[in-house]
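Entry 14. Structure prediction run on the chain below.
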Amino acid sequence: MPSTSTQNYPIFSLKRFQISLPNQLKIVLMFALAVVALGGNWPVMKLGLEHISPLWFAAVRFVMGCVCLFSLQAITGKVKLPTRKDLPIVASVGLVQMMMFTALGAIAMLSVSAGRSAVLGYTTPLWVTPIALFVLRERFSTMQIAGTVIGFVGVLILLNPATMDWRDTAILQGNALLLFCSLCWALCILHLRHHKGDSNAYQLAPWQMLLASACLIPLAYYFEGSFTGDFSATFWWVMLYMGPFATAFSFVAINAASKHLSSASMSNAMLGVPVTGLLASTVFLGETLTLSLTLGGAVILGGIMCVSLAGRGASGRQKC
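Output returned:
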C-alpha cells in the first residue's frame, strides 16, 4: 500500500520533487537564500561580539560549520577526500575567503557599525575588474571600467574623509580591514572561476572550514588567551545562526553559484547582501542611516550594477 500511494502521489515524495527541479533553479534558490543569510549575518555578528572576542568568534563559527557539514556528509555517505587538483581551492578558500575575511571582518566590527561593515565588506565586485584587467590581462568594456570608478567614488563618499577623525586609529583600521576583506573575497572569486578542481563546492566546504578552524584556534589562543565566550542564551542563538546557516550553508551556496552562474548574475545578486545588512542593522540594532552611508552605499551599488550589466554582453573570458 505505501508503495502504491507514492506512485499515485509523487508530489509527496521529497526525493522525486528534488530530482524534478532543474539544477539551475536549485542553485538560484540556494544562492538567494544565502544572500539573505549573509546580509543578516552582519547585525548578528555585531551582537555576537558582545559575548565573545573576534578571533574566537571566527573559530567557533567555522568549527560549527565544519561539524555540521561533515556530519551531513557522513550520514549521506558523501564524504570525499580532496584530490591534489582540489588542494589549491581548499587552501585559497579556507585561508583567504573563510579565515581572513571572517576574522579580520570581526575585528573591524569592534569599531565599525554593522550597516557600514556590510557595505564595505561587499565591495568585492569592484576589486574584480582592476585585478582581472591588470593581473590576468582580461579585456573589459568602457562601462565596466566606469562602473568600477563610480563604485570607488562611492567608497570615498561612504568613508567621508572630510568628516573622519584621522586621529582615531581604531576606526581607520576598521574601515581599511573591511576593504581588505572584500579584496580577499575578490581574489577567491577569480581563483574559483579560473581553476577547475575535481570536486564540487559541497564536497570541499568542510575541508576548507577544517583548515580555517585549525588556523584560527591557535591564533585566537595566542592573541586573545583562553576561550572568551560567555555561554549566554544570546551567545548560543548567535552561534546557531552563524555556524549551520550563515557559514555551512551560505559558503557552499555562494561558491557553488560562482561555478555555475554568470559573473553578471553573481554581482547583481550580491547587491542584496549589503542592502539586507543595512536594513537589518537599522531595524534590529537601531543604527542610523547617515547621509554619507546612504549616499555612498547607493553610489557603490550603482557602480557594481554598471559592472554587472556590462558583463552580460561580455565574453566568457571575463569571469568574476
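The first helix runs from residue 2 to 8.
Filed with the rest of this week's runs.
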